[in-house]
Amino acid sequence: MIGRLNHVAIAVPDLEAATATYRDTLGAAVSQPLELPEHGVTVVFVELPNTKIELLHPLGDGSPITGFLEKNASGGIHHVCYEVDDILAARDRLKADGARVLGDGEPKTGAHGKPVLFLHPKDFAGTLVELEQV
Amino acid sequence: MIGRLNHVAIAVPDLEAATATYRDTLGAAVSQPLELPEHGVTVVFVELPNTKIELLHPLGDGSPITGFLEKNASGGIHHVCYEVDDILAARDRLKADGARVLGDGEPKTGAHGKPVLFLHPKDFAGTLVELEQV
């Protein structure tokens, strides 16, 4: 069912410093910061030949990554995102298998303008999993 | 400097259950478990079209992931691995930038039989980074 690894998201306490680390120290191509107020984050995309790393920093009040950064002051890997062809079919299969979909179970429009869902970490080896329909 | 994302490693408390989750619930192709006593882990490879997920479980005494699983009882993302062309050149550039290389700074033979190094999470946005020469 799952296809490509779309991205790995890393929550960071200092977006400028993390961007410099990936650009200057690791020598990767990085984007300009992109504010996504509807998702409560500012994101910098690190472009690798086969996938992306997304550096996430809280934006505004009630950002979904604030709690994570309180627990992980230096930052850390926040989630992985796998691509699916049909997000509703994927959701229904997962629910039939007993996996928990976060929120109300309806896909939202993700950071790339495509439908996404998040799955409960306890059902996926302690890992927050995003599914994105591509 | 860094190239492809070689893999994302997820430490799991129950390798059979995590393998079943990726195979049956997420519908991915998974390998048989492979014991790597010299690395203190048993690994299952999840093959995605563009990269791999590696499910790691402790093997033997003093496994390098035992402490991580004590802190993350449900499992969690342990590290990311980026490919480099020349690991000694990469190491020297990183050290010149002030980044800390773990251990004695000499590459070891990694789980894929290739030279690897690990970098200090505090220097890389809270993320344990493995470099693998390909």
From TrEMBL, chains A, B:
GO terms for molecular function: metal ion binding; methylmalonyl-CoA epimerase activity. Keywords: Cobalt, Isomerase, Metal-binding. GO terms for biological process: L-methylmalonyl-CoA metabolic process. SUPFAM superfamilies: Glyoxalase/Bleomycin resistance protein/Dihydroxybiphenyl dioxygenase (SSF54593). The lineage of its organism: Bacteria, Pseudomonadati, Pseudomonadota, Alphaproteobacteria, Rhodospirillales. Residues 4-134 form the VOC domain. Its EC number is 5.1.99.1. This is methylmalonyl-CoA epimerase. Belongs to the methylmalonyl-CoA epimerase family. Pfam families: Glyoxalase_4 (PF13669). It catalyses: (R)-methylmalonyl-CoA = (S)-methylmalonyl-CoA. It is an enzyme of class 5 (isomerase).
